[in-house]
C-alpha cells in the first residue's frame, strides 16, 4: 500500500511539473519568477507592489504587476521583459493578463509579444495590441511550439506612443505545457529544401477552434512576413495553411515559422529552415583523350564543381560551333565517346550535372572546343570533261568538289598528264589546280598527239584518283607524237 501511494504521489508531482512550468503574479517582482529585463532596451518595466504605496490613478487595478508609464518616456522608446528559455519538445501555452489605459482614451502605446530562438535576432511580434483597451484586465494566450535542442524565449515588449499619455501593464503570466484553449497551436514545421530558382512551399498544420478565421502569416527570422497563399480545412479543429516563396535564391535561405493571431491570442510554430541548394556546375571543361574523323573521346573532368551535390546525373552536351542544334547524352562513366560526327568539323562540348529535386540541373560547365580529323575522300572524282581541244592545248573541267566528297575542308586537286613523242620519248607532269575553280587548260602540248589525263584528289588523310582520259590534240602541220602505255 505504501508503495502504491508513493507511486501515485510521484505521478502527481510529475504531472504538476509538466502541466505548470512556471507562473508569475509579480507579488515580489519579476526576480523570483526568473524574469529578466533586457540589457539593451531603452528603459525598464516598473514593478507595482500591493504592499507598497504608489502614485498610480485610483481607477487602475489593485495588486502587484509590471507597468509602463508612457509619460515618463519618449515616443518610440521600448522596454522588454524576458521570460526563462524553453527547450522541451512541446507546445507551451503562455497565459497572461494585460491592459492599456489612458484617462482620455488616447493611445498609450503598443504591447508586443516576441519569441526569440537561440538568442538570435528579434523578429516581428507574433502578437500585439495597441490603443486604449480600458482599465480592466484582459486575458490572452500564446501557443508556442518548441523543439529541442533549440532554445525559445518569450519577450514582453512595451513601446511608447506619440501621445505619451497612459499606462501599459501585464500580470499573472502562466507558462503551461499543454495546448491553449483559445489560441490554435501548430504541429511541428519541417525543413524545406529546394533548388535555386524554384518555388518553395511551407505547409503549416494548426489545431484549435476557429483557427481558419485567424490572421495567418509566415515569419522569417529577419522579420519579413510572407502572407498566406491558401488555407484548407482538414476537420472541424484542424486546418492547413500554405505559404509560397517564388523562385528562391541563396539569399532567401533562412529560418521561417508560422504565426496565427486573433483577438484572443496567438500561436507560433518552431523555426524551420529553408535550404536552398545551388545546382552543380563543373569548374573545368572536359579533357580530350582521343580524336578521329567521326568521333571524339573525352574525359568528363567533373569532380570539381561549383554548387551542391549529390550528383545524380551527368550529361554531355555538344554542338557544332557553327550550328544551332544541340544534342545531350546521359553518361554513367568518367569517359565518353561521341560518335557519328562530321569530319574536319569544330565542336563545342560541355558537361551538365544534376542534383536531386526539380530544377536540379545546373548550368553547363566551361566548353571544350576541338575539331575532328579529316576523313579519306569519299570517292574518286568523276571522269574529266573536255571543254576544248586545240593543237597545242586542251581545256578540261570537272565536277565541283564539295565537302561531302572531299571529307575535309583542306584538300588539293592535281591534274597529271603524259604522252610519247618520237623515238619513244615520253613526257609527264602534274599540275596543282585551284580547288575553287574546277577548270584548267593543259598547254604546251604537241599537235596531233594522244595525251593521257587524270585527276587526283588528296587531303591529309588520303587520296583518290580518277580514271584516265585519252585525248588527241589537233593537227597544225608540225611533227606529231604517238600515244603509248602509261607507266
Question: How would you describe this protein?
Answer:
The structure is a single chain. This protein is mostly beta strands. It contains two helices and 38 strands. The chain has helices at 2-19, 403-406; strands at residues 20-24, 36-37, 46-48, 65-69, 78-82, 90-101, 109-117, 127-130, 138-146, 152-160, 167-176, 185-186, 192-195, 200-207, 215-220, 225-227, 230-235, 238-245, 254-262, 265-268, 272-277, 281-282, 287-291, 296-299, 305-306, 313-320, 327-331, 335-338, 346-354, 368-371, 385-389, 394-397, 412-421, 425-432, 439-442, 450-459, 462-465, 469-472. The strands form eight sheets. Strands 1, 3, 4, 6, 9, 11, 13, 15, 16, 19, 20 and 21 form a twelve-stranded mixed β-sheet that branches. The chain has a five-stranded antiparallel β-sheet with strand order 2-5-10-7-8, with no helix packed on it. A hairpin with a 6-residue loop joins strand 26 and strand 27.
Amino acid at each position: 500500500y505504501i508503495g502504491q501511494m508513493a507511486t501515485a504521489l510521484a505521478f502527481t508531482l510529475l504531472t504538476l511539473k509538466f502541466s505548470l512550468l512556471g507562473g508569475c503574479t509579480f507579488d515580489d517582482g519579476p526576480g523570483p519568477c526568473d524574469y529578466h529585463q533586457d540589457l539593451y532596451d531603452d528603459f525598464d518595466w516598473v514593478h507595482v507592489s500591493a504592499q507598497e504605496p504608489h502614485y498610480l490613478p485610483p481607477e487602475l487595478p489593485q495588486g502587484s504587476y509590471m507597468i509602463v508609464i508612457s509619460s515618463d518616456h519618449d515616443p518610440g522608446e521600448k522596454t522588454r521583459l524576458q521570460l526563462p528559455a524553453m527547450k522541451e519538445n512541446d507546445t507551451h501555452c503562455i497565459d497572461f493578463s494585460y491592459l492599456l489605459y489612458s484617462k482620455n482614451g488616447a493611445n498609450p502605446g503598443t504591447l508586443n509579444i516576441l519569441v526569440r530562438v537561440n538568442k538570435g535576432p528579434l523578429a516581428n511580434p507574433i502578437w500585439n495590441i495597441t490603443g486604449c483597451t480600458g482599465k480592466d484586465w484582459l486575458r490572452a494566450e500564446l501557443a508556442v511550439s518548441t523543439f529541442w535542442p533549440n532554445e525559445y524565449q518569450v519577450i514582453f515588449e512595451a513601446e511608447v506612443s506619440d501621445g505619451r499619455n497612459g499606462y501599459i501593464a501585464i500580470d499573472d503570466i502562466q507558462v503551461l505545457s499543454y495546448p491553449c484553449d483559445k489560441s490554435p497551436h501548430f504541429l511541428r514545421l519541417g525543413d524545406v529544401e529546394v533548388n535555386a530558382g524554384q518555388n518553395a512551399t511551407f505547409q503549416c498544420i494548426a489545431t484549435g477552434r476557429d483557427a481558419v478565421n485567424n490572421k495567418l502569416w509566415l515569419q522569417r527570422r529577419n522579420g519579413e512576413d510572407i502572407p498566406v497563399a491558401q488555407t484548407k480545412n482538414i476537420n472541424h479543429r484542424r486546418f492547413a495553411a500554405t505559404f509560397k516563396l517564388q523562385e528562391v535564391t541563396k539569399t532567401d535561405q533562412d529560418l521561417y515559422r508560422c504565426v496565427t493571431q486573433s483577438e484572443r491570442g496567438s500561436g507560433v510554430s518552431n523555426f524551420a529552415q529553408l535550404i536552398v541548394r545551388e545546382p552543380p556546375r563543373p569548374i573545368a571543361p572536359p579533357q580530350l583523350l582521343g580524336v578521329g574523323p567521326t568521333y571524339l573521346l573525352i574525359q568528363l573532368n567533373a569532380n570539381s564543381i561549383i554548387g551542391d551535390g549529390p550528383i545524380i546525373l551527368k550529361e554531355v552536351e555538344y554542338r557544332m560551333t557553327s550550328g544551332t542544334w544541340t544534342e545531350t547524352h546521359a553518361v554513367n562513366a568518367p569517359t565518353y565517346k561521341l560518335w557519328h560526327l562530321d569530319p574536319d568539323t569544330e565542336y563545342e562540348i560541355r558537361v551538365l550535372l544534376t542534383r536531386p529535386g526539380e530544377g536540379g540541373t545546373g548550368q553547363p560547365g566551361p566548353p571544350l572546343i576541338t575539331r575532328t580529323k579529316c576523313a579519306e575522300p569519299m570517292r574518286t572524282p568523276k571522269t574529266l570533261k573536255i571543254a576544248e581541244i586545240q593543237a597545242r592545248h586542251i581545256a578540261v573541267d570537272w565536277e565541283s568538289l564539295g565537302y561531302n566528297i572531299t571529307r575535309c575542308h583542306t584538300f588539293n586537286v592535281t591534274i597529271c598528264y603524259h604522252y610519247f613523242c618520237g623515238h619513244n620519248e615520253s613526257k609527264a607532269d602534274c599540275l596543282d589546280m585551284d580547288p575553287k575553280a574546277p577548270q584548267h587548260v593543259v598547254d604546251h602540248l604537241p599537235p596531233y598527239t594522244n595525251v593521257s589525263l587524270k585527276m587526283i584528289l588528296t587531303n591529309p588523310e588520303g587520296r583518290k584518283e580518277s580514271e584516265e582520259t585519252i585525248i588527241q590534240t589537233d593537227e597544225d602541220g608540225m611533227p606529231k607524237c604517238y600515244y603509248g602505255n602509261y607507266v
